[in-house]
Amino acid sequence: MISRMATTHLLYLHGFRSSPRSTKAQLVRQRVETRHPGVTLWCPQLPASPREAMALVLRGIAGWPRERMAVIGSSLGGFYATWVAEQTGCRAALLNPAVEAARDLAQYVGEHRSWHDPEETFLFRPDYVEELRALHCPAITRPQRYYALIAKGDEVLDWREMTGRYAGAHIHLLEGSDHAISDFPDYLDEVLAFVGLATPSA
Prior knowledge:
Rossmann fold, 7 helices
């Protein structure tokens, strides 16, 4: 059985080229701060190196209670969130999660501009692809602790691959939308409820 103790600690992991300033991350932050002020929310700026990114996360959540924590991840952050959930046993909500991150990002080796600050650049090195391969989870355990919001209209990732990867999980398949899930506000309450932060009763 999956623990349904109230969540006290929430981790948000952004996607490739993204940051804690992403629209979805900010929506989550605003909602948590407004309706769940006692909850610890952490949305770190992840380094380009997947190995360093997950080392940072593990250090940051080292003191968190596993039965009271959850993770939300978008795109590459969904790939990372899956790894975190498999390491900790926590609940995970995935937003158009990358499934084969090493395969898909191999074509992006080189220098990139940050999505939210074009003046900021980073280098995605060839060895980072191998680091992604090392983080790949062959199969998820206890699918019932996963929720996936997947858009058929995703122009970057294949919704069929995503739904197949998370078979058995709580999947909300959107007929349209896009990779960024531009209509995310419509599903924010549903996402937060799954990770243990239900909207307080009026």
